[in-house]
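Here is a protein:
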Amino acid sequence: MAVQVAQVVAPLILLFETFSLGILPIFLVRKLQRSIIGPQVLSFMVCYGGGVIFCATFLHIIPDVIDGFSSVRVAFPLPEAVVCFGFLAIYAIEEVIHLCVERGHRAGRHNSPMPVDARDQSAPYFGDSTTISISESQSFNQSAAQFNRELSISGLLMIAALSFHSLFEGLALGLQRSERDTWLLFMGVSIHKTVLAFIVGFDLSAAGIATKVLAVYMAIFALMSPLGALIGAVSLTNHNFQGVPVASMNGLAAGTLLYVTFFEVLPGIHCRL
């Protein structure tokens, strides 16, 4: 019973703190930009959270995956293959998303309005300064609208990638079989996700994204881990959904957590050193 309570309470806490810290930069972005100690504190928290996730993955999740595949008698190392598949799948998805963002930026630059100075210089011009002012104003408004659209699309794709991570992180949380393991993994996921939500919210807020759009993005991001935990918890209560299926989902979650640790947490800390 204590395990079920932990699997309900932990995702709710994670939901609240992720959304709260995700929208906090809306009110603190200017003040935090001038802060000196802020980056050091964030780096320490990210490093600590990454270490907890790293240990939880190798010491708890992957052994459970191996145990779940113990009934399958094949020479091929299936548990390790599932973990690798989860790792590579997340990598492939992020590469596709980055490619879409890059193409969107190229299309935006290609379709940008022609500046006033680039117009035909050979044609005689008899207008007054008001005409030039109106043309420049229209060009600026079109460029600003294009920039806002690209910013919203880029932010949405970023949140989509992070939400996919969070879904499997929550899935790993819901698949834990003991209260201690649930809270241990929650601590690592919570530190990583809340700091990540704050950093993403800070970046999008500083870039000028609309407050309502940022709130919607953070709500989506915050809901993914509880949704994954719910799927994992329901899977454990279903007796027809045990053994290899649960171990497979756990392996995918382990691969996701490894990707988060080695491709998001550690490179970010290394760049700050």
Observations:
- Residues 2-101+154-272 form one domain.
